[in-house]
Amino acid sequence: MKKQLSEIPVSVLDLATIVEGDSPKDSFIKSLQVAKRAEQLGYNRYWFAEHHNMPNIASSATSVLIGYIAGNTSEIRVGSGGVMLPNHAPLIIAEQFGTLASLYPGRIDLGLGRAPGTDQITSYALRRNLSGSVDDFPRDVIELKNYLAPHTNDAKVRAIPGEGTQVPIWLLGSSTYSAQLAAALGLPFAFASHFAPSHLHDALKLYLKGFTPSDQLQQPYSLACVNVIAADTDEEADYLASSFYQLASGIVTNKRKPLQPPVKNFLNEWDEYEKAAVLQMMKYTFIGSAATVKKGLQSFLEDTQVDEIMVASYVYDNNAKIHSYELIGEFFKKRAL
């Protein structure tokens, strides 16, 4: 039986993107505008992704930004998609998210990634010690999970706040590694198909096949993130998407800059090598009118059978971005309003 979009929730991934001419503060204000509207529309979650040393992304202090959004909304879940655990001591993250969960109970998600979210030099600048490694990730996840668990008398180190909050932990991935770890630990799994499409199906299969129930989760729960830009017409969406393509081109060429205004006929003038590289990386990108995007997302859902879809949208004009979320939200199951 085919799963329908109307049967699953939809959520938002935000990087607090800095557009040309804006400051980081401007990006935070715009993120809050989007989050408030997403809450009104019945979106399920609003997540921020940790990145560093990037001129177009302001979500580096992820937990601080989560607190800002959670404190100015009332119902939508807010969280990380994700915190890059190799950059932090597990105790620090437990205390930060324990604080958030204490302030906004039942609304905080803790998504964890094992990549540094930046370049190698910045990664070393972030590390709590130079011997730290992504290979420590499984141990660090378990340590963090234990800090958030109820108090036990033999605990020598306690996260206060944090202890007993049992903030839901998600594992994020762009390969099969985190899928297998999420399955083994009985945690929900989110795949970054918005920029790393190659291993999506293999990761989902491994997660479902290897899932072991846990205190947090009895049945596997999978989420996939995709890029979406919706507008009133296909032509308008293509025009708005030129900002996104410029951003993606900067990733491929390592010439990053703030999100640029849209330009006409960008695809016709685009360097063919860059175009091919971007389109391969951004395979799961859906651009067009509401009808066009709905058709694409429904096909994606039938192909993956995920339990939730998360949407990332890179649009220069914030009103157009909000309108895109308004169009998309109509397809999905709404959070209880």
Automatic annotation (TrEMBL):
This is Luciferase-like monooxygenase. Residues 26-303 form the Luciferase-like domain. To bacterial alkanal monooxygenase alpha and beta chains. GO terms for molecular function: oxidoreductase activity, acting on paired donors, with incorporation or reduction of molecular oxygen. NCBIfam families: oxido_grp_1 (TIGR03558). CDD domains: Flavin_utilizing_monoxygenases (cd00347). It comes from Ginsengibacter hankyongi. GO terms for cellular component: cytosol. It comes from the Bacteria. Coiled coil: none annotated. InterPro entries: Bact_Lucif_Oxidored, CmoO-like, Luciferase-like_dom, Luciferase-like_sf.
